Amino acid sequence: MPIQEGTYGLLAEFDTPSDLVRAAQTAYASGYRRMDCYTPYPVEEAAAAIGFHRDNVSLICLIGGLLGVVAMFSLETWISVWAYPLNVGGRPYYSWPAFVIPAYEWTILFSGLSAAFGMLAINGLPQVYHPLFNSPNFRSGATSDKFFLCLESTDPKFDVAESRTFLEGFEPVSVVEVEY
Amino acid sequence: MATKDTPVNDPMLDPITGEIRVIGPGHTFKSVTEKISRIVLTPHTPLGWYGGLFLAGGGATLLLIAVTWLFLRGTGIWGITQPVAWGFAIINFVWWIGIGHAGTLISAILLLFKQTWRNSINRFAEAMTIFAVVCAGMFPLIHTGRPWLGYWLFPLPFTMNVWPQFRSPLLWDVFAVSTYATISVVFWYIGMIPDLATLRDNAKSKVGQFFYGMIAMGWRGSVRHWVRYETASLLLAGLSTPLVLSVHTVISFDFAVALLPGWHTTIFPPYFVAGAVYSGFAMVLTLAIPIRKFYHLEDIVTIRHIDNMGKVMLVTGMIVAYGYGMEVFMSWYSASHWEYFMMWNRMFGPMGWSYWVLITCNIALPQLMWLRKFRSNVGLMFLMSFIVNTGMWFERFVIVVTSLTRDYLPSSWGTYKATRWDYATFVGTLGLFTFLFFLFIRLLPMIPMSELRILLPQAKIHPKDEPLPEAGD
């Protein structure tokens, strides 16, 4: 990524989740799209307000799970039937009911790992640096007790002066210009 | 419900429902953050913590000595022999892994059932799961006698071209337990990320900021992230639920798939799972009661939690009692001479005393938990948690030892006596478990702050036309 300079966006701070949701709804209705809300706990209404409804984590989880079950079942079959056929008490080489159990465990293992790491990957984490961390009020509040709305400068409707007036209309605690 | 025997103006009572609150009144987003993060971020480590860590560390050292001696001399230092080749190692394995199950139950199953009261106890219950699995996983490995060949259990391409035998329940165990350990760690860590970010932002020291900053992975609470995060948490919960049920089921297969009287029974999977949850909740109480006292968390881990855990223990205890009853019934109803003798031997044989310890601890005494007064008495519940875990340990002792000592052929009957190394290893795992737990409560957030915030009244979103509540309302 090239080094970026200038303004990342305008960050408005709110005390309550309700204020944030109202501001986000109005901003979305006024045509802002490149924006994000930051909350210390999941606020589904805020995600809905900025038009974010669907996520792909479930799909990744499903793919992982299918991969797991297929991988383990075929491994078991290959080992028990071709690679190392072993007669145990006269049981058939292809003892599929017994193979179900490790395959079941691997379904869970793979889908769980895919859900967890897939979620992190789509979120772009780990990402230890982010421009928002330059804002002191964000650092002290975003993971504790404050609610933030950030209008990003990449939005075509974004203009430092106009957007600031727009945000100040919601009577936030503060509006901060965040640098890259 | 609880109003009769408690004063009406008790601040811990919710005025609307009359029930004991899940979280004390007057908490705000900030107070929750401060209260929990202070435990971790304070530069002043309480003296009691050092004392506890020292004692637990002594136990862990004992484990190290016991295992070192075991590796030098072999499994002959234990009491295991023919016919009881399983002994303490397998008893402890089943006991420990069972304890872990409550953590997953609280974090996964109660999440799916939207039991929000579990929010404040799920983190340390999950930590308990992981440390219990650490202790459990060690036992089958060191019991193999040649633990350095443990990798043979996995389907890896060796030069010898030898592969595992997938029809054996012991191999299913490998996959069940390793999956359980992995998923538990991932679930625990993912759940902790937002709180680690809180610690990063509240840490005063450079070391703290760096350490929590790295493991928080740059979490910044974007609502897009939260939506995916919530989906992933729900998926992990949904996956952990069948997983936790399967783990103890597979462990019960170790017994049930064998042909030994007393083992070869279909009741084992459900009753093992219920027993696991039973002992796990007891262990959560054993840990939660001193911690809430020591760190003054009575308004976050409330009497409501203890009461609810008592109820879960009562239910799972009754399922276990049904399992015992059904075992007795089937040994008569099967009209099998061997089954009949097994049950007689279990009750009145040379080790019959252990069966009655189990019945007393697991069935008779826990009936006291029908009383609300008993369930909301912290001291008595603490005592009960020990009683139940003793009982559950004896359950595994009875299953493993009494069935093995006297099987079909009287000429191969034997007895079992644990040696001092058996006891040292067991006590050592208790030490290791406690040691890890002490480290956990000092270094990581033991109560999920982000999930507690959801429980606060301020978290409710008010639509546009409604007036906003006052701060702290």
Report on the structure:
- The complex is a heterodimer of chains A (180) and B (473).
- With 180 residues, chain A is an alpha+beta fold.
- Chain A has 6 helices and 4 strands.
- A 4-stranded antiparallel beta sheet of chain A has the order 2-3-1-4.
- Chain A starts with 6 loop residues before the first strand and ends with a strand.
- Helices cover 66% and strands 0% of the residues of chain B.
- Chain B has helices at residues 29-41, 47-73, 87-112, 122-143, 169-202, 206-216, 223-256, 268-294, 303-333, 337-348, 352-364, 372-375, 378-405, 420-443, 449-455.
- Chains A and B meet through helix 1, strand 2, helix 2, helix 3 and helix 4 of A and helix 1, helix 5, helix 7 and helix 15 of B.
Summarize the structure.
The complex is a heterodimer of chains A (180) and B (473). Chain A is α+β, with helices and mostly antiparallel strands and 180 residues long. Chain A is 49% helix and 13% strand.
